[in-house]
Amino acid sequence: MTLIQSPAWKALSSHFDESKQQHMLDLFAADPKRFDKFSIQHGNLLLDYSKNRITEKTMPLLMSLARQCNVESWRDQLFSGEKINATEGRSVLHVALRNRSNSPIMSDGEDVMPAVNAELDKMRGFSERVRSGEWKGLSGKAITDIVNIGIGGSDLGPDMVCSALKPYASDALNVHFVSSVDAMQISQTLSQLDVETTLFIIASKTFTTQETLTNANTARAWFLEQASTTEADIAKHFVAVSTNTDAVSAFGIDTDNMFRFWDWVGGRYSLWSAVGLSIILYIGMDNYEQLLAGAHDMDQHFKTAELEQNIPVIMAMLGVWYTNFFEAESQAILPYDHNLNLLPMYLEQADMESNGKSVKRDGSAVSYSTGPIVWGAEGINGQHAFYQLLHQGTRVIPADFIASVQSQTDNQHHADILASNFLAQTEALMRGRSLEETQAVLDGLDISKEEAEMRLPHMYFEGNQPTNSIVMDKLTPYNLGSIVAAYEHKIFVQGVIWDVNSYDQWGVELGKQLAKNVLQEIESGEDKFEHDSSTNGLLSWFRQHR
Ligand code: F6P
C-alpha cells in the first residue's frame, strides 16, 4: 500500500476536503481556548501553533499518520545508532555529539561517547589556550582573528551560531567565514588580517571539497608570501577539522592540529562536532556546552514526549499538512531577532539538502510532494519587502515567526517595536481584513465613492495564512541549541513520513563532476566543446571574455 492510499492519509484527505474552507478567524471566535489547546511550552521556549488551519480533528489525524509511518520506531533507531542512512551505510548520530547525559550511544557495536568526549576535551584545551593568549603566533603575539574556511555544513552552522551568539563572544577575537570560491571573499578577508595574529581553521568533513581546498591553498600561499613567515610557522596558524586524516596530512597540516569527527555526522548536522571549533573559539567552551545542553534537552524531549506533546513532531506534521494537502510549496523562516538573520539560510541547507528527494528508501519514485522550498529573511525587513505576497498573494505559505523576548541591548523601546510587529504580522496574516472592515476604512477617507469602490478589492485581505510563533525568553546558547535541534528533528520526522533518506545528498554530485570537466575546458586552449548548444555557447562566451 502506498502512503497516499493508506488509511491515515485517506482520513486526512477527507478531513481536508471538509475543513479547507474554514477561516481561522471563525475558529478563534468559536473557541476561546484555542491558544491553550494549540500551544506548547518547553523550558523557556513556546510554540504557539494555534494560528494554523487546523481544527480539533486535524492534530489527531496527523498523529495517526505519524504512528502509521512508525515515527516512534524510527526515532528509536536514530538514537540507538542504527544505520538509518542506508545509502551511505551510516548511523546518524549528531545526537551523540551533544549527549550531555553521557549515556552510551552505540555505532557498529562501539560506544561513541569516549571519542566524542575526548574531542570535546581537546577543543576545550585548544580554545582556552587561544583565548587566553597562551597560544602564540609566529612572532609571539596572541591570536586576534579566526578565519573559518569551509562551505555548506562546514560554514553555515558555525557562521549562523557565531552571528546569533555575538553578545557572548570574546572582545579579543574576531571571527571571519570564507566559503565562496569567488576570490573576492577571501581577498577581502585577507586584506583585513595581520598574518602574525591570524588562525585559519580549514573545515571540511571530506577534505576534498574544491572550494574549500582552493581557498585553503590561497590562504596558505598568502601566509607564506609574508616576509616574516616560514613553512614551520604553518603549525601555529593553520588547524583542520575533518573526518579525513590522510587528506589533512597531505595538505600539510600536522594531524596534532586536527580536530576529528566521524562519518556518522552529516555535514549539515555538524555544528555540534569539531566543525563548531570557530564557535568555541568565539564564545568559549562553556557557552558552547550550553548550546549542546540546549540541543540535548530538545533531543530528550523529542525522544520521550508523546507525539501529541512533541514540539518537533508537531512542527513536522503541520508541515506535512500544508505540503501534501494544501499543496503549499514553500516554508518561510522569519526571525524577529537581528542576530538570527542567518538562520533562514542555515535551515535552507538543513531542510532542502535532507528532504529534497524524489525517491523512497526502497528506490521507487514518490507519488507525493516531499521537502518544501525553505526560504526567509529577518522578518522586520521582510515586512517592507516581500510580505506583500504573504498578505495578498495567491499561495498558501506556512511561515515560522521566531522571536526572542528579551533584547540583548538595553533599548527596550526598540525591543517593543520589534515585538509589536511580530505580534501584529501573525495576527494580520491570520485574520485578514474583511470587505466590511475594508469598506469602513475607505469610508473614513476623503475620497469619492467611485474611488472607494475601485480601491475596495485591492485593500481587502483574505487572511487565513498559517504561522507558527516560536518564542524564547532570550537568545541564549541554550535556547539556540534547543531551537536548532527542534528543526533537525522536524526534518527527520518529515523524512520518515515521506519515506526518504534524509541523510544522503547524492543530488549535489552531478554538478560537481561536470564542473571539473568544464574547468579543464575553460582553462584549455580548445574552442570546440561537446555539450548542448546552450552550454557550448556560454562556455565560448566565458572564454572570449575572461
Ligand atoms: O556538496 C554538498 C556538501 O557535501 C554538503 O553536504 C556539505 O555540508 C558541504 O558540501 C561541505 O562538505 P565538506 O565539509 O566535506 O567540505
UniProtKB/TrEMBL annotation:
Q: Where in the cell is it found?
A: Cytoplasm
Q: Which Gene3D superfamilies does the UniProt record give?
A: 1.10.1390.10, Glucose-6-phosphate isomerase like protein, domain 1
Q: Which domain of life is it from?
A: Bacteria
Instruction: Name the PROSITE patterns on file.
Output: P_GLUCOSE_ISOMERASE_1, P_GLUCOSE_ISOMERASE_2, P_GLUCOSE_ISOMERASE_3
Q: Please name the pathway.
A: Carbohydrate biosynthesis; gluconeogenesis; Carbohydrate degradation; glycolysis; D-glyceraldehyde 3-phosphate and glycerone phosphate from D-glucose: step 2/4
Q: Which UniProt keywords apply?
A: Cytoplasm, Gluconeogenesis, Glycolysis, Isomerase
Q: Name one Pfam family in it.
A: PGI
From the UniProt record, list the reaction(s) this protein catalyses: alpha-D-glucose 6-phosphate = beta-D-fructose 6-phosphate
Record-annotated active site: E353 (proton donor), H384, K512
The record's NCBIfam families line, in alphabetical order, gives:
PRK00179.1
Please describe what this protein does. Catalyzes the reversible isomerization of glucose-6-phosphate to fructose-6-phosphate.
- Identify its protein family: Belongs to the GPI family.
Protein name, please?
Answer: Glucose-6-phosphate isomerase
Which organism was this protein described from?
A: Leucothrix pacifica
What lineage does the source organism belong to? Bacteria, Pseudomonadati, Pseudomonadota, Gammaproteobacteria, Thiotrichales
